[in-house]
Design brief:
Blueprint lengths: L15 E5 L5 H13 L15 E5 L10 H4 L1 E5 L6 E5 H7 L1 H12 L6 H6 L1 E3 L12 E4 L3
Parallel strand pairs: 1-2, 1-6, 2-5
Antiparallel strand pairs: 3-4
Helix pairs in contact: 1-4, 3-4
């Protein structure tokens, strides 16, 4: 007789993915990262369980953008005060902090529920080739 394994008691290990973002398109990269963070690539995926993996992205300042997004895409932030709407173009935001653009793209692709925050904690984005997780055993993705 085959015994059915309960999903809650089944042990699984989170994998580490290393992505070099040099020359990769922002939206395609963000959608692939959100799949790994949610765990949708696993055969035992359940939408109400956190089965996602760790993702480390390097060279995020070299992400490729198509079209005229550098000047036409606008990010908005509201301070909470009257007349406090702040707008930034993608070029301005990229010059200030390139890691926040990828984080924002991935955040909007994750579902807006209690699983979003722990999934975003497993996303590590770095400028350049150096990162803090050299001791981990990575699945390296050169092209997506």
């Amino acid at each position: 007789m085959v015994r059915k394994i309960d999903q809650k008691t089944e042990l699984f290990s989170r994998q580490w993915h290393l992505i070099d973002a040099n020359g990769l398109v922002l939206g395609r990269l963000a959608s692939r990262i959100s799949i790994w963070l949610r765990g949708k690539h696993r055969p035992n995926f359940l939408p109400y369980r956190d089965l996602g993996d760790w993702v480390v992205v390097i060279n995020c300042e070299k992400i490729k953008l198509t079209g005229n997004k550098l000047d036409k895409k606008i990010y908005r932030r509201y301070t909470g005060y009257p007349g406090g709407l702040k707008t930034f173009t993608l070029r301005e935001k990229m010059a200030k902090d390139a890691t926040s653009i990828l984080r924002e793209a991935v955040r909007t692709m994750l579902p807006d529920n209690k699983l979003r925050k722990p999934a975003l904690k497993r996303l590590k984005v770095f400028k350049g080739l150096n990162h803090d997780y050299t001791d981990k055993k990575f699945i390296i993705h050169n092209s997506l």
